Amino acid sequence: MDRELLLEIGMEEIPASWLPGLTTQLGTVLEAKLKELRLSTEDPIETFSTPRRLTVRSAHISERQTDLEELVTGPPVSAAFGPDGALTPAGAGFVKKQNATEDQIERVKTPKGEYIGVRKHQRGKAAVDVLPEVLNNVLRGMSFPKSMRWDAMLGDGKGELPFGRPIRWILYLYGGRVVPFTIGRSPLAAGPRVQEISTGASTYGHRFLTTSGRAGRAVKVKHFDDYRKRLAEHFVMIDRNERHDRIARELDAEARRRGGRIARSLVGQGMLDEVPDLVEYPVVASGSFADEFLRLPEEVLTTTMIHHQHFFPVTNDQGKLLPVFLAVLNMEPDQPDVVSRNMERVLTARLRDAQFFYQSDRQQPLAANQKRLDTVLFHKKIGTYLQKSDRVAERAAQIAADVLKAPQAEAFAREAGQLCKADQATDMVRELTELQGTMGGIYAREDGRPEEVWKAIYFHYLPVGVEATAPPTKDQLGKAAITWASVSLADKLDTVISMFGAGERPTGSRDPYGLRRAAQGIVRILVDLPELTGLDLRLTLGDLVTEKPEDAFWSFMIDRVRFVLEQRGYDPRNVRAVTHGDAAQVSPLVAKRKLETLPEFTESGDFKQLAGLFKRVRNIAKNLDASAPDLGGKLTEPAEVALAKEVDRVAPVVAAAVASGAGYRQAFAEAAKAGPAVAKFFDDVMVMTDDAKLRDARLRLLRRLEGLILQLADVSEIVPEEK
Amino acid sequence: MTFQDLILKLQHYWASQGCLIQQPLDVEVGAGTSHPETLLRVLGSTPWNVAYIQPSRRPDDGRFGQNPNRLFKHHQLQVILKPSPDEVQQIYLDSLEAVGINPRQHDIRFEEDNWESPTLGAWGIGWQVMLDGTEITQFTYFQQVGGMDLSPISCEITYGVERIAMFLQKVDNVFEMEWGGGKKYGDVRLREEVEQSKYAFNQDTGIDPERYSSFHRHMFDENYKFGEELLKAGLILPALEQCLKCSHLFNLLDSSGSVGVTERMAYILRVRQLALAICKAYVEQGSGIGDQGSGERA
Question: Would strands B108-112 and A46-50 be described as parallel, antiparallel, or unpaired?
Fold first, then answer.
């Protein structure tokens, strides 16, 4: 009979950002470990979590392992038996080692020859006897963004058990009975205050809240439904969705009660997603602050509330901030007002600090901070932020004028580029680093600089800001669209190119300077350039780069182009096909446009035929010495004449698409039609004939075909996988 | 509860939990972690439970006594529990009750906040403890100190005493908080904050910046050299004091704007080098020097 398995790992507070990932991971790891140990689960595994526990439950786990049937192979038959047909010492040794008898020997045919083997049948063990090992493997199998050592040991011979946070208890029930398992402690730590952790039938409620008994004491449970119910009685909601919905509902209600609503556009989804993982029992509270702080820039207020206090700002119906905040507590305090007053006091202190920084920054214009950048190091081999600003200014001006062909924006781009890092030296950004860029933009605006400049500064980190990862919208950018693109591209390019120059290349998981993110930012701007700026420019990576970087730079960049396109859901094979060749010549925007239509064709028979033969086309076409004169040979065979006609037919369509940057659908459709002609050509025509003239003509035909198709994509990358 | 009562209550509580009550290190430091009762005691395997107040100097945080929350010098109450007991979070929460913070009436959270000190080759995993939105304690399971893995793991609990006293007294300005006997924190410390801030930033002092810089550089070099000599002589604790003096001198050079960017990194690396060598020597000396050694348990 199948029985329920319930595991709860009780831990000290788990970081909120880890919780969703760890919850899923526990389910996956348990499922894998059960499978490895041949215990079957029929129902999907369910997972739950709070900051103090990771829980997993399977309603039905088989009572026994499935039996194991395996064929153990030994030495080759030739070595196992002597000429007389009797077992050699090698053969006998194998039989003995397997605890078998000679009559159990089977002959096993393998590609390497015939071997002897013994069939072994192992009866499955009772689940209760295997489940301790399952838990051992689950604990070993969990991985954390950062692990800690906590003097814990497992008895599996592998020693210490690092974990995300110390484990305080383990509830482990199978069919209502405790499965025994113990985590040991290192001998240097073990003692009366540092003890083994043994599995039990108890969970623990909320640290401070309880309806009966002492808060935080052990609560015995029998099975999952009981577990869930008992925890609810002890103020623990184990279902994250339930917590999330309750929070959203209560926030809305409390905001209404306060005469406004949650400023969702300011909060973003981030905080609503995080808060449920900070609490076991959410309760919404609210407070207010003095009206005078509303004179601070809105970004300063919301950053202080959101990033520093996890408070939700509230706006009126017109979207103006009210002097009110909401907070999600992990507590139902006896006197909620006391908690609100305390929170108000902290927020006020922070806002007063911000006000102080703001006033001190405003003693002078933003540009005056510029010279202090001389003491802020960008990289020791590259120089200071002041030097970086100078480079960004020149590059931004050059991009605006030469690359984006917008000479009217050149001076604005230079001005914005020069000032874009100045806020690094302001008191506000030194305290609230999340506001970098934003603060510079605000100060530039207050200094009376034009929209083209201040907005370019404001948004220049995007689309890869500290937290925000979306580019600004065209509406937000207003008149600053082109200067923003110039400065944002210039800043990121400067970072990547100068860091490469200093030998700081990302390797493996190490990318301390965020060069991959910076490069992805460049690619994303190029891909979305028309939507973001209204400029229909199909820029290549080479268009942007005035210097001559080393090969490593280009292969790094093309990887980032592919990464961004794959992130958008395009098939990796198609992505490779449209980003082939010289990286400097690749236009991310053109690649994206091709990818939008390419999947319509990749499944068609004609296209597959073309794709399948294209590698051959390329290989043979290599035989043509491109610098040699055309020998003027004539194509005569029907198949080659037909192919030449196809090439003539397709060429103008491809040329038109390439020239206009549109019409790739038609170009792919026409190119695909050439598939059968290519196939027929290879069936009927022998390219490398002895007739030099004819050979030359055929190679030229293939070379033309190759060049034509490559303008669209290297379709040989898209060969169907079933081969 | 006054500032001094709070300190007395916490010390009393930790004494009742089996901690020795030690005294502050009489050398300028930025945090209680630099005290040998933490920095060296967490190395090696000898169990050690200790609590002490540590006045902590952060030149960069000086605000001339004008900011209600920031101080050149604040007080940490530092607790080291080695090995870290299973119930350490509860023991900590009980300490809050002992000073009159009833967890039933507040929102107390353990929020992820790891700690790292590159100069000490040290890092740990832990939380900041939030009380109704105010950070009142840093809670860290030390993982490495002096670049060496620790075993057993120690737990460091660092209370921000001013913060907690302000919370308990419901005052918004640290200088208005009562120290004891009707005297305010400002009565006791305001003048020191003003003068130390002027000194730290070399502001309104009339002292030539060149002179300021060369004096501190010279002191740094002298302390550093002598620290190395003491270390060579096997005198770990005196060497550590010289190293900590260097660290503080560097902080002053930094806050007064006397070091450029590349130089800054070089100073940090030098302090780190000496600190690592001291920790290493401490471990290598082992139990040879009685109760100051790392004494492998028999």
Answer: unpaired
Of B109, B131, B143, which has the smallest distance from its Cβ to A330's Cβ? B109
Q: Which of B87, B105, B125 sits opposite A338 (nearest CB)?
A: B105
Res B297: pLDDT: 42
Q: Indicate if the pLDDT at residue B296 is higher than 50.
A: no
Inter-chain touch B107–A195, beta carbons under 8 Å: no
pLDDT at A467 over 60: no
Q: Is the Cβ pair B104, A15 closer than 8 Å?
A: no
Nearest CA in chain A to B47: A189
pLDDT beyond 90 at A690:
no
DSSP letters of A638-700?
HHHHHHHHHHHHHHHHHHHHHHHT--HHHHHHHHHHTHHHHHHHHHH--SS-S-HHHHHHHHH
Contact at CB, A339 and B93, closer than 8 angstroms: no
CA distance B55 to B28: 8
Query: Which conformational region is residue B62 in: left (phi greater than 0), alpha (psi within -120 to 50 degrees), or beta?
Result: beta
Domain ranges of chain B: 3-201, 209-292
Q: Does the beta carbon of A208 lie under 8 angstroms from any beta carbon of chain B?
A: yes
Task: Give the tens place of pLDDT for each residue, A541-562.
Answer: 999 998 888 889 999 999 999 9
* Chain A residues within an 8 Å CB radius of B111: 13, 16, 278
Distance of alpha carbon B76 from alpha carbon A602, whole angstroms: 67
Q: Which fold is adopted by the domain B209-292?
A: Methane Monooxygenase Hydroxylase; Chain G, domain 1 (1.20.58)
Residue in A702, A704, A700 with CA at minimum distance from that of residue A682: A702
Which of A148, A278, A283, A380 to probe the B interface (max B CBs under 10 A)?
Answer: A148
CA distance A642 to A681: 8
User: How far is the alpha carbon of A365 from chain B, nearest alpha carbon, in Å?
Assistant: 21
Contact B143 A149 (CB under 8 A): yes
Note the pLDDT tens digit of each residue in A394-405: 999 999 999 999
Instruction: Give the Cα separation of A717 and A559 in Å (integer).
Output: 16
Contact assessment for residue A4 and residue A179, using Cβ atoms and an 8 Å cutoff = no
User: φ, ψ for residue A629 (rounded to 5)?
Assistant: -70, 150
Closest residue to B83, CB basis, from A151, A349, A377: A151
Q: Determine the topology of domain B3-201 in CATH.
A: BirA Bifunctional Protein; domain 2 (3.30.930)
Q: Which helix (H) or strand (E) holds A396?
A: helix A385-398
CA distance A458 to A444: 9
Whole-angstrom distance, CA of residue A288 vs CA of residue A311: 11
Percentage of residues in chain A with pLDDT exceeding 70?
98
The alpha carbon of residue A330 and the mean position of all alpha carbons in its chain are separated, in whole angstroms, by 30
Q: Which residue of B has its CA nearest to A283?
A: B107
Best of B71, B112, B283 to substitute, by most chain A Cβ atoms within 10 angstroms, is: B112
Give A189's contacts in chain B (Cβ within 8 Å): 83-84, 151-153
Q: Are A489 and A525 in contact (CB under 8 A)?
A: yes
Are A349 and B152 an interchain contact pair (Cβ–Cβ within 8 Å)?
no
**Beta-carbon count within 10 A of A4 CB:** 18
Encode pLDDT of B251-294 as tens digits. Answer: 999 888 788 766 777 899 999 999 999 999 999 987 444 444 44
B208-263 pLDDT, tens digit per residue, is 989 999 999 999 999 999 999 999 999 999 999 999 999 999 999 988 878 876 67
Please tell me the number of Cα atoms within 13 Å of B280 on its side-chain side.
10
**Both tokens of residue A132?**
């301790």
- Residues in B closer than 8 angstroms to A338, CB to CB, are 105-106
In Å, how far are A36, A96, A598, A636, B147 from B32, measured between CA atoms? Answer: 49, 67, 64, 92, 19
* pLDDT tens digits, one per residue of A198-208: 999 999 999 99
**pLDDT score recorded for residue B62:** 93
